[in-house]
Amino acid sequence: MSLIFTFEQCGFSVEGWDEGNPYIINSKGKRVYCYHPSLETEMEQVVVELLGPIYTEQARNEVLATRTGNAADHVCMHCGNIFKLDPKHDPMQCPKCRQWEAADAVKAFEMGGMPCPKCHGTMSEGAMGAIS
Ligand SMILES: [Zn+2]
Ligand SMILES: [Zn+2]
Predict the structure, then answer these.
(1) Ligand with the closest atom to the CA of 115
(2) How far apart are CA 75 and CA 72, in angstroms?
(3) Is the same domain home to 4 and 29?
């Protein structure tokens, strides 16, 4: 499910998903984002694309161990840019302002009560958004 945080004073708004953005890297090296409820089917499609129609359990596990990750939506506390970031694999830097280090990134889902990056007021606790 998602939470929507809005800051009424400046209108800044961000939606965060509790499950983040799970992905699997396809044969072209691109991240394919897979979401509930078809997450497993979509991941399986990429596994088949990589390994062909016949593969062993071991090969499949290896693909899942090495080519999957989770790039949750993050908010840059400097410029308010919202972007997908996998803390395990991506450089800890905002692609827009390139200003922050790890401590300045906040997961969109955890924005409740945080200072607004635009006007520095405090964000709302969040309203329930979509459910998946
Ligand atoms: Zn930024
Ligand atoms: Zn604000």
Answers:
(1) 2
(2) 10
(3) no
Looking at the CA of 14, name the nearest ligand.
2
Q: Which residue(s) pair with 13 in the sheet?
A: 6
Looking at the CA of 124, which ligand is closest?
A: 2
Domain interval for residue 47: 22-70
In this structure, the answer to whether residues 4 and 41 fall within a common structural domain is: no
105 CA to centre of ligand 1 in angstroms: 9
Q: What is the pLDDT of residues 56-109, one digit of tens each?
A: 999 999 999 999 999 999 999 989 999 999 989 998 889 999 876 656 789 999
Tokens 């399986």: give the residue. Answer: 44
Do 92 and 132 lie in one domain? The reply is yes
26 and 14 assigned to the same domain = no
Ligand positioned closest to the Cα atom of 6: 2
Separation of CA 108 and ligand 2 centre (Å): 15
State how far the Cα of 101 lies from the Cα of 79, in Å rounded to an integer: 13
